[in-house]
Amino acid sequence: MNLPNRITITRICLIPVMMLALLVDFDFYPPPIEIGAFRLPYNQLIAAIIFLVAASTDGLDGYLARKNNMVTNLGKLLDPLADKLLVTAILVSLVEMGKIDSWVVVVIVSREFAVTGLRQIALLDGSVVAASNWGKLKTIIQIVAIVALLINNFPFVFLGIPFDLIAIWAAVLITIYSGIDYFVKNIHLLSSSKV
């Protein structure tokens, strides 16, 4: 149980804390943040902060593992699992809150399962499907979109710009494209696989 794996496990442990903060209404005191017609409940703000902290550890654990030669099979299993649990948990919560449509979550989660399956096939054949630039961009845009939704489009709401909706659409499109990109670049794994 090295430091990178501890960081990954901490990310997983932050998920129920984030869910509790998001789905339980703590706004009896202090009152929510209100600026004119804008309203931001504290539970959403707290969940956004926890989500950002958890998401920021994603690159950190991998970086430390590679830099200090601490890459383990446990880490290879837990790191992508933690990422998928974090994003899926928050997206399902946003559906529950009526902030996004369920089909958005289905598209994003389906892509994650498909790419994970491709990676598993590669591992069985002794290959590794590395994260692509499109995959990294997908992650960044998903994080930005989720935070924008959690904080009720602040500060863009005051400019009349639906940044949260633009960001979630961008996340969906790049999620789809990055998934296709993974399969196009690794189609040989499917045709040559013994699975």
Automatic annotation (TrEMBL):
This is CDP-diacylglycerol--glycerol-3-phosphate 3-phosphatidyltransferase. It comes from the Bacteria.
